Amino acid sequence: xxxxxxxxxxxxxxxxxxxxxxxxxxxxxxxxxxxxxxxxxxxxxxxxxxxxxxxxxxxxxxxxxxxxxxxxxxxxxxxxxxxxxxxxxxxxxxxxxxxxxxxxxxxxxxxxxxxxxxxxxxxxxxxxxxxxxxxxxxxxxxxxxxxxxxxxxxxxx
DNA sequence: GCCAACGTTGGC
DNA sequence: GCCAACGTTGGC
Length: 157
What we know:
- The protein is α+β, with helices and mostly antiparallel strands.
- The chain has four helices and six strands; from the N terminus they run βαβαβββαβα.
- The chain is about 20% helix and about 30% strand.
- Strand 3 and strand 4 form a beta hairpin.
- The longest helix has 12 residues, at about 145-155.
- The chain binds a DNA duplex through loops.
């Protein structure tokens, strides 16, 4: 029996890496997560899981599309790159600290689901990203909530 | 640019 | 193990 499909939400600042970048490149390694809670969620991901792409530090911030996890347990190469801002001198190839996943583009939603809209539709218990002060860049999304997000996103604008 | 929230670091 | 200082995130 196949594992249940899990849903996630992953944040990126569009001036660093946007959904348009992912659409053009088709797939990417999700580099640069340096928070243990977020990394632990990355470690839990399974091939086939779906993740909402969230633009943070954007105008407006919000969910802009969907991607799929295509490879898991990737050692984030930037942790060993001394020229990278994500370089971690406490991490060694023998025991790397930071794992991540490879994602592929699925779709850009016809309209952005702004943080304001998400706050209207969901409580902070249903959807962690609407919680005030939340800084986690990778988080799980409950299946029912995910289905509702997709339904809202699919409506004709 | 401001600043609230919160994670990390390091002295003790 | 506590906690003050510091750095970062990210909405506004």
